[in-house]
Amino acid sequence: MTSTSHPSRAAVPPRGGGAFLWLLKPLSLLAFLALPAAADQPWSFDPSLLPSPIRNAASGPFLIRGTAPSSAANCTVSVTLSTTGTSFSAPATIRDGSFSLRYPDNFPGAPPLSPALLYLDVLSNPDNVPDAEGLLVIHGPTPPDLPLPFSDDAIDSSGRRDQNAAQFPLHRALVNHFLHSRAASLMGIRRPDFDLAKADDLAWFRNHAALYDFDHRDRDWSTPLGHRPARGFWQAVWNRWFNASNNHPWDGNPANTSPDNFRPYTFTNDAADLAVLYAMLRRASPAAPDHRHGLLREIMKNLLALQHRSPDNFALPDASGRREHYSAGAFRYGMFESGEWLTEGTGWFANPRFRDFAHGGVFNGRAVWALGEVLAADPHSPLAPRLRDALALTLRFCLHEALAHHYTSLTPSGLPLWNHPGEHGYLLLGLTAACRSIPDFPIALHPAKPPRPLRDITANALDTLTESAAPDGSWTDYANVNAVNIAALASGSLALPSHPRAATWRSAALKATSLWLSLSSQPDDAAVFGPLFGDRRGNSMTFHHANANAHADLYVSGHWLHALALTHRATSLPAALDRANSLAACLCGHNSLSVRLLSEIGSINNRITAPSSPSLPPRLAWDAYPESTAFFQIGLLHLLP
Q: What domains sit in the chain, N to C, each tagged with a CATH number?
């Protein structure tokens, strides 16, 4: 879970790994090409990933190119398809520190190009871990399907489960490939003999690397489980992440460290983030007839259950005795897998320092984003009437009722600003998405005033962002807040293109984007973090936060990929597209570790941490979270033509 002002969950050390230490290579393709092949030149797929890892299938076969140490004479290049899990290999000769093969022509058995992710591996010794990884994104008229083992329920469209499900052969291949990979080796979770078809390995994966709640999947769901009405449930992290550092002991005995004593939970906003991704994936053709659409409906039923609908206040006093006021329309903080509410003093909030629920919280904006995207993707679903009603109720709370409790403020012209600009931006992403399908839906923000169409409420909310910006176009020094707001303004100008103020929203997005693209990193940070965004300090960016080692949170990169893609679409700013492609290339393998950060199972790591000393080798931690996973792939889908 993250807010738009601080990555609070990152305060808890990830289970099963250390810090993610990183040293990013130079960004510029021209600089890369200008350098002679050095004796210690690393293995990489950089020439294939720059300037962009995205290819159009209609453009036909292309060269897969890479670099190698000058002492290397030959290698094997492997390409694995995300749509089938099938791998195709070919030998390559290394000349002057580089290799190249034409795909698919030089790979026996490889099919013609079609939308897919291509997982690239180069091996100097087939018996060892790959020397470098890469990822290419092949699109057509529609985007490629994205891998889902990280969040899938292992049920197919016919109701078959686990090894009998239609997607199991594909997921087996992708999970196996990931756990045999270079990235998994650097994270310390590589398992050379792993096979998802083995019962013990399947259990390990579900306990250590999967978000879905398999513990309760197969119960009789004709009756609810506590407050949980539906089967579909994404946990905040996998089962074995939950412990005394981030949860409360269920039996009240902190000395009982059994995993069963720390019951998994979900945050409302984490479930909402993945729901946005699943809604956007309706544009892709599923690689296998899985249960994703049914799973999303189940997730949304549980999300709707998290919305408080009575006029009383559901908040409890916190450790200091302070009590927030959350009434009808506000979303609860989350839910345990067993159907109990996540409240002050329980789960994550057992630690009194963790206060993501305070001062309006970080849950309502992202819940509205999910409501809007799901309505836009499937406006005629059986759930649509309930989703529309939930949207209206939350807007009444956020844009009217919350004024009395000072969670919402008024701009000088009297427009309501929910919470702070970043949370208001999340709210707007949901509103602009909903405007694509129900722009005339009537909503009464004030019980004594007549309803207004959604498009007018959305336009006012967009005006709030433009009015609340500083003279330089930004809202705060936080990179994520600005990215969310830029995405919201660009999205508004695209969703309501004929509105009289669409040009104003577009100009505001352009101004803020241009400012942030002009910021440079400090020299030491630039060498480490390359195209990633840190928080603003004057005319530069910093990745230094409190007492922690310098780090970049990858969910922020996802937000910026989203913002830059929409800004380019709305304004045609070339620099926005260039930086978006650089971000995509970084997460697809153009980094000093030459690893894919968008993994074969569909996960994205949480953060990149700089080494405390240049002499230390970089290493990865297995710390993938829902928000980093969802936000980068949401941004990638927006970047695709």
A: 8-25+149-639 (1.50.10.10)
